[in-house]
Structure formats: structure tokens, C-alpha cells
Amino acid sequence: MAGIPDPKHAFGGKGPRAPRPAPPPQRKPAPGGAGNGAPRGGNRGQGSGGSGGRHGSGGGGRATVYPANGPLGRALRVEYEARENQDPSTTLQEKKERWEAVGPEANGLVVLRRLSFEPLDGGTNPWKNHVPLHDWAVETRIGQGDAELLRQTLERRRRFLREWVSADPDRRHVLRVRLTVEWRLVSGLGLQFGVLDNGLALHGTYGWPTLSAATLKGLAAAGARSADVDTARVIRALGGPRPRFGKEPRPTREDHSRGSVRFLDALPGEDTVKVHADVITPHQHPYYTSTDTKAHEKAQVRKDAQYPGEHHNPVPLPFLSVSGDLRVELMGDDEDDLNAVFDWLVEAGEELGGGGRTTAGYGYFSCARADGEDA
């Protein structure tokens, strides 16, 4: 396109990113000792006692450590061990008195959205770098292993709701809902945080799996439309304006109103939410990514459209999903509106699903009243 420089020429033929530095020469390890050559993006550990990587473990494996990119590299690293005739092992470690595996109290916002590493296998494809992060997420359920913090957080919310209702019992009401995922749910795929694009909805303070209040409100609105509820009824509970379709008139300033029902972010219950490492593998990736004409019109480097073919390499795309129970609290001034919103959430969970990949079975859930629980 005229007037737009081609990055392949504007940066000396190397593209907008600087060329990778050549790895330092590898030295032959001394008899009985560990080598001191460094891999690209990391340092090979030396010695023992937690100060470096393991060497010479079972199966002829050799361990290499890769510090995280940026300032976090001083405190976090990955130990990568290639083993003969076996899958390589990776361990996410943090520096305390010695290097130890990252514990369950770590915050998922840091681990999943702030960490990145050079390719762990010494190559140029970093997609496998998600393995130590997703392994940690599955093992610790994204920080829920800190059971005391989770218990205190749930108790603090219960105390707030009790005090809020007690200030005006006749006009303030709370409806507690237990949202149970039927199989798995993946929400936040489009967030694409971090170098590895770990898209998963996480609580903004604690980093736990969550469904935001905005997501819950959107699900309720979708359930109301699926049940063909009158628009005026929806506006009363959820506020306005609501989306118009077809030839319906555009909303005016007078249509703006606040709904009677307020949503709180869903929190995991104590020991109820599990995390799963999933993967989808498109087999026609060049075809799907080259047929978006709008993207190519804005691209700096134009590409010709690719035809589908079985000769294309499959591209694994890892992602995280959750299952189990989430705690949902609804606050409102009218019990009838609270009950209506509950019914709309039930409709959405059974008929529409929430989050991504609903056509593959993800996202469907059931709702049950839990007013008597943790009152």
C-alpha cells in the first residue's frame, strides 16, 4: 500500500523486531561437573541446593533454566528438562531462600498475564511456553490453593451483604445463586493478555477464575430475550436502554435508566472450581487467516489468500477452562425483579450457554437458589 513502509525493508530486512542474538558457544562440561554454557534466553543451572537446574537426571535428561523476560526474571524462572524417549518436563519456580516451585498462593494475574519466556526448546516457536504456566494453573486451580484467603474473602462478602440488608430490611433483598457448570466453561478468550494470549476471566484483585458482574448481567439479558420477555420488564430489572432490533426506534436520552437488580462478580466457592488445560488444533490455519479481506487492507505486509489443503501444518492453540460451582449474589430493591433475573439466568444457562466455544459443548450451566447457604 502506498505511503506505508514495508517492515521487512524499513528495519534492515529483519522486520520490526531485532534479530535474535546468537547463542553463546557451548563448552564441554568438565568430567564430573556441570556445563556452564547458557541457552538462548536463560542460564544453565550449576550445582545443587536449589541454586540452579538439575543435571543428569533419570533417562539421560539435562535441565536448563530460563528466567522470565523483564524484571520478573530475578524472581521467576522455568526449569526445562529434556529427557530421552519421554516428553520434556517443565517446572515454574520462584526464588525464596532457594529456588522452589511456585506455590498455590501466587496470583494468577501475574503468572498468566505477566510472564513470558524465550522458546524453551531452543527453537523459534514459543507456543509450548504455555506448558509450565498452564500446569501451575491446573495444579493450584489458579491460586485457589490458598484456602484461608478464599475463606476470608467469602466471609467478608457475606458480612457486607448482611449489613447491607439490615440497614433497610423492607427494601433491600439479596438472592444467592449457585451456578454449576455442566461440563466446562471458558470465558475471556478474547482478552488476550500477555505474550502467550492467556485469555481467561480472572478476578481483578485475587486472580481467581470468575464471571464478571457485566458478564452475568449480559447472560441475564440474553436469557430474557431468549424467553421473549417484554422489553419494559427487562428495562425495569436491568436498566436501559436495551438493544433494539429491526425497525424498532433508536433509544432516546429518556430511555436511560438504572435497573433495580445489581450483580456482584461471581467467586469460586471453597474447593469447588477446577481448572483444565485444553487445546484446539485448526488444520487449515493459513486458509482461515488469509481470507479476512479487512485485515489485509489494514496490514502493512500484504499476503495472498491461501487455499485449504491437508498439507498445511496444524497449529495447536492452548487455552484454559473451568468447571465446578461459582457463587453468584444478586442485590435489589424488589424481590420480584430478583426472581425474574434468576429465571433469565436459568434460561441462558440451559439454552444459550456463556463464554466461548459453546458449539463444542462449553459454557452450559445450571442455576440453583442458595439462600440458605452461608447466610
Overview of this structure, please?
- The chain is of the alpha+beta class and 375 residues long.
- The chain has 9 helices and 12 strands.
- The strands form 3 sheets. Strands 1-2-3-4-5 form a 5-stranded antiparallel β-sheet.
- Strand 4 and strand 5 form a beta hairpin.
- Helix 5 packs across helix 9.
- It is globular, with a radius of gyration of 26 Å.
Describe how the helices and strands are arranged.
Elements: H1 7-10, E1 55-57, E2 61-67, E3 76-82, E4 89-95, E5 99-101, H2 108-114, H3 130-140, H4 147-166, E6 173-181, H5 213-226, H6 231-238, E7 239-240, E8 257-258, E9 261-263, E10 267-280, H7 285-290, H8 293-298, E11 317-332, H9 335-352, E12 365-369
Antiparallel strand pairs: 1-2, 2-3, 3-4, 4-5, 6-11, 6-12, 7-8, 9-11, 10-11
> What is the total tally of β strands?
12
Strand sequence of the main sheet, in spatial order?
1-2-3-4-5
The main β sheet shows up as: 5 strands, antiparallel
Helix content: 25-40%
Low-confidence stretches: 10-59
Name the beta content range.
15-25%
Query: What's the order of the H and E elements?
Result: HEEEEEHHHEHHEEEEHHEHE
C-alpha Rg, in Å?
26 Å
Structural class: alpha+beta
The shape is globular
Termini separation comes to 64 Å
